[in-house]
Design brief:
Order of helices and strands: HH
Number of helices: 2
Structural class: mainly alpha
Strand content: under 5%
Radius of gyration: 25 Å
Length: 57
C-alpha cells in the first residue's frame, strides 16, 4: 500500500460526520417532544394524587 491510499483508509470524512449529526438531530427532534410530554403528564398525575391525599387527611 502506498502512503496516499493508506491515509485515505483511516477515519471519517466530514460528509459522513455531518450525515450522522443530521440523523441524530432528527431523532432527537422526533423523540424529545414525546418524552417531555409524558414527563408533564406524570407530573400532573402526581400532583392530582397528592391533592387527593391532602383532601383525605
Amino acid at each position: 500500500m502506498n502512503s496516499a491510499s493508506c491515509s485515505r483508509s483511516h477515519g471519517f470524512t466530514l460528509l459522513e460526520l455531518l450525515v450522522v449529526v443530521v440523523i441524530i438531530g432528527l431523532l432527537v427532534g422526533y423523540v424529545a417532544p414525546r418524552y417531555f410530554g409524558q414527563v408533564g403528564k406524570s407530573e400532573v398525575t402526581t400532583a392530582k394524587a397528592q391533592i387527593d391525599a391532602l383532601e383525605k387527611a
